[in-house]
Amino acid sequence: EEALNLFEATLEEAPVAVNDQFDKIYQHVKKHLFRNGTTDEKEKSRLEAVDKLKVWKKNKTLPQDYLEDLLRIIQNDGLTGEEIRFINKLTPKNVSHLLERIPEEYLNRVVNKMNKVEEGDETLILAEQFN
């Protein structure tokens, strides 16, 4: 709370323009602010699973609601590495095993928890351009 006082402004105070690069740099920093350095292999595996699920969704291989929930959970990093690897090993012939390994009830619980988190506190990122 004390830090917020540093950013206090009066109604008469005019905003200071930032240069063209500020937003580009800010968006990059914001995107990578809470990432750790070990995400490359994990990210590759996660993207592979997302691509596979999108194909199944397009081909209507599994129930659409199930796949949409699973995609949302993966995109929010809500599955373990083991579950991601399981998805990546599946073939069209054995895709039905996914419903057994990751049941819809489990997805519903995760989605409910994600919704509660999204309703909760938010992080405020304060940024300033230095000349």
TrEMBL record:
Keywords: ATP-binding, Helicase, Hydrolase, Nucleotide-binding. The keyword Nucleotide-binding applies. One of its GO terms (molecular function) is helicase activity. This is Helicase domain-containing protein. It comes from human gut metagenome. The lineage of its organism: unclassified sequences, metagenomes, organismal metagenomes.
